[in-house]
Amino acid sequence: MNTRRLLLFVLTAAITPWLTPGSDRNAVLSASTATAGSEVDCSRENGNDAGQKIQACLDHLPSGGIADARGLTGTQTVAHTITLVKPGTVLLLGSSTTLTLADGVTIDLVGSNVRVEGTGTTSVIRLGNQSSIRVGSPGHPLWGWHVEKLTVNPSPGKLPIAGLMLNNARQGIIREVWISGIHGSAVDVAENCWSDRAIDSIVTENDIGYNFHGDALNAWNIRGGLINTNRIGLNFDLGSGRLQGFSISDGTQMEANKDAGIRLVSGTILGLFLSEIYSEIFESQRLIKTQQSASQLHVGQLSITNGYIYSKDTPPLYLGSRPQDTVNASISSVILYHSQRKMQIVEASGVNTSVTVSESESESSVYADTSTEQLAVSRDGARTSTMHGGIPAK
Hints:
Blueprint: H1 3-19, E1 39-41, H2 50-60, E2 65-69, E3 74-78, E4 82-84, E5 89-93, E6 97-101, E7 106-109, E8 115-117, E9 123-127, E10 132-135, E11 142-143, E12 146-154, E13 162-166, E14 169-170, E15 173-180, E16 185-189, E17 197-199, E18 202-204, E19 208-212, E20 221-223, E21 226-228, E22 232-249, E23 253-255, E24 260-275, E25 278-281, E26 286-290, E27 297-311, E28 317-320, E29 326-338, E30 346-349, E31 353-358, E32 361-364, E33 376-379, E34 383-388, E35 391-392
Parallel strand pairs: 1-2, 2-5, 3-6, 4-7, 5-8, 6-9, 7-10, 8-12, 9-12, 10-13, 11-14, 12-15, 13-16, 15-17, 15-18, 16-19, 17-20, 18-21, 19-22, 20-22, 21-23, 22-24, 23-25, 24-26, 24-27, 25-27, 26-28, 27-29, 28-30, 29-31, 29-32, 30-33, 31-34
Antiparallel strand pairs: 34-35
């Protein structure tokens, strides 16, 4: 075949699908041809709404890969649940995109090493009644999940189950996610969720920011971000469950949570460590308080180090125990700034409560020369001590 005939043959083969009567010119935009390696453009999928387009996109990925929904801009409807099943799947959402979930609709992360990622606060997921983003489920654990760079809130007048719901969700990351306005919990954490991280995320104006219940909630770290203006910032109501090695660090801010920044209700807590935190609390608010239920509360170690607390009128920590409870705490290198003449850092109650405060200060913002030597007040047989330079305060 000479060169001219070969060129004509190649050109004819290339354009035949576009010229043949009855051929589908849009076929090049279908999933099979819109896939670049393991990446699919969701905006080119068929579907009645964004939810169907995204699910078709996810279904057409060969075995994980990128479902790119950044082309679905503006306010988009999701009428059916979106499920990320294939391990290694990444769902990308664009800026200035709002996915509005219908009542009862969820976004479910099921496969390990899956990720839902936006571009920042303008990538919005609006939840309907009984809606949520669900990570894992009872009996079906997953590992290595990510939810990142999103805003999550209810549609006007709607009551979601929670912003994020975790169950059997392990070694995951919540990064730069802003959850607000949830009537229940912004982040609801159930059984067997361990080695998870919340990094530079914001939970504000919810009933509860992070709600922990169940067993094996180990090796968590909340690193930076804001936990502000909720009724309760973090709630630990484990029942008969157990938690080990939970840390809050790196400048995490807990401000103006109306009841408490942290509430300890039930379960066995072996190591709750707060370091380098910043807190402001106002009328009758607490940074940390115990509020037991019918179940036993055993706090093996609560530790606060290198923190700043402003309190308007109330000692920021209330730690109490009943005969069936135990509460052990140590506070060191903490500055308490307040609006009273004198204020202790800790109010301790009950014979099974033991608190040591060391190398810390309490200073008034109103009155001069009113530093408090004894930084823990004891009631009902609680054991407390205050140390300055290794010497017990008088």
